[in-house]
Every structure is written in C-alpha cells, then in structure tokens.
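Protocol step 4 of 5: obtain the predicted structure for the target chain.
Materials: sequence only (see below). No template structures provided, no constraints applied. The aim of this step is simply to have a reference model before the mutagenesis design in step 5. Sequence pasted as it appears in the construct record:
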Amino acid sequence: MRSAAPIGSLLDKILRDLHIEKKVYQSQALGLWSKAVGAKISAVTKPERVENGKLFVRVESPTWRMELILIKQKIIDRLNREIGSRVISDILFK
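Step 4 output (structure tokens):
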C-alpha cells in the first residue's frame, strides 16, 4: 500500500503541473504584506499588484516612500521568507 503524501507536497505538484506556481506564490505577497512590514508601515501603504516578481505598493506620502526605499531589501527578504520561496525580486513604491 502506498503511503499518503502531505497535502502541501501535492498542492505544490499541482501548481507546478499547471504552470501557475510562481503566480500563486507572488499573489501571497499581497496578503502577507501587513505581517511582513508591521502595523505602522501597513497603515501608510497598500500593496496593489505583483507583475513578474515586482510588487507595486502605493504609499501615503513622499516621506514614507523615501523611508521604505531605504529598507526595501529587508522588506523583500521578509516577504520571501513568509511566502517560503524567493518570488519577489523588487518593490516599486508609488
């Protein structure tokens, strides 16, 4: 008798077979944004979309935009860690 595979492994295989794995993981960035950046930054930003590994985020003010640019790589690393895969390569703050 064959042993059962963990549901996560099956889901990953299905996503790969459908060639949508990367898009699904990228879309998780939108939902995980608040967790990755915290309440203070989340209150002044809104993640809008992900295209080709680039996350587009609307920012409340130019001052916040500059602050976020300075810590952009840290945010990218946190997001990718939360997602469990290196799918976000850049963040564009607007």
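Step 4 remarks: The CA atoms of residues 48 and 57 lie 6 Å apart. The longest helix spans residues 21-37.
Proceed to step 5.
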